[in-house]
Amino acid sequence: MRENSLENIKIWEGVFANFNEIQDTENIYEGERWLASNLERSRKIIDSEGHFTYRSKIAKDYPLKMAVLAALESKVKISILDVDGGYGKNVMEIQSTFQDIESRVELFILENVKLSNFYRANIEMPKNFKFIQNISEIEKSKTSLDIIHFGSVIQYFQNLKVDLSSILQTIKPTWIVFSDLMAGDIETFVTVQNYYDSKIPFRFVNFEELNKLVGDWGYKLFVKEFYEHDSTSVYFPQKGFDNKYQIGNSMNVIYRLHD
């Protein structure tokens, strides 16, 4: 093994008060090693025709915060709907991230009656959280919705086109966020998800079909990234499917209503 291999390099050395105490190597960012390293990395993400090929990801998490940040830039107060949002984990993260946010955000969580009642009885919810059982409740409240979030949920819609269109027909938010979207360059198909002793219908979607469906409602694709599941994920790799049905990752996708 070479003496200057990475395994033998001591990365950190010493504790100092300021830069003047360190005798650094001059022009390291103009040297041959740095240039060669950058060239090697660039060739992995840019093809010979100058096209960017890197599969970018912003985080190993849902991108709802990004849409919230964008919405708050243009409005003093915003409203968010989390579809099948459970006990509110996704919107609780909004509360814990943004400062003085409770007075600026109205949060709706669409859940079934049993779960909603269970969470109300067992979890102390912030005052700006509201559980609803039907999308029409937002319409009746005359709330102008800014963001709708689908967190790993549309794969369970019985009829994706009908169900999604019904939601967008009732409320038309400025931003649509799909997190952990099971979509890709595949044929749309339905499979069975085994959950302990239960069997659940589960849909994988051709992304361009979904993109057209959302686009037909006046939305423009704003962010598209790959969602990275952790090493314990049961979804990947997908060795049980033929290659034409496999996706390497799920997606995080954000749409904005086109002016």
Report on this structure.
The structure is a single chain. This protein is α/β, with parallel strands linked by helices and 259 residues long. It folds into 2 domains: 6-45, no CATH class; 64-257, Rossmann fold (3-Layer(aba) Sandwich). Helix content is 27%, strand content 24%. It has helices at residues 32-45, 64-74, 89-97, 113-122, 136-140, 160-170, 207-215, and strands at residues 78-83, 105-110, 129-132, 147-151, 175-181, 183-184, 189-195, 198-206, 219-227, 250-257. The chain is globular. It starts with 31 loop residues before the first helix and ends with a strand.
In short:
The chain is α/β, with parallel strands linked by helices. It has helices spanning 32-45, 64-74, 89-97, 113-122, 136-140, 160-170, 207-215, and strands at residues 78-83, 105-110, 129-132, 147-151, 175-181, 183-184, 189-195, 198-206, 219-227, 250-257.
Radius of gyration: 23 Å
Largest sheet: 7 strands, mixed
Quaternary state of this entry equals single chain
Main-sheet strand order equals 3-2-1-4-5-10-9
User: Can you tell me the CATH superfamily of the largest domain?
Assistant: Vaccinia Virus protein VP39
Structural topology:
Layout: H1 32-45, H2 64-74, E1 78-83, H3 89-97, E2 105-110, H4 113-122, E3 129-132, H5 136-140, E4 147-151, H6 160-170, E5 175-181, E6 183-184, E7 189-195, E8 198-206, H7 207-215, E9 219-227, E10 250-257
Parallel strand pairs: 1-2, 1-4, 2-3, 4-5, 6-8
Antiparallel strand pairs: 5-10, 7-8, 9-10
List keywords for this structure.
alpha/beta, Rossmann fold, 7-stranded mixed β-sheet
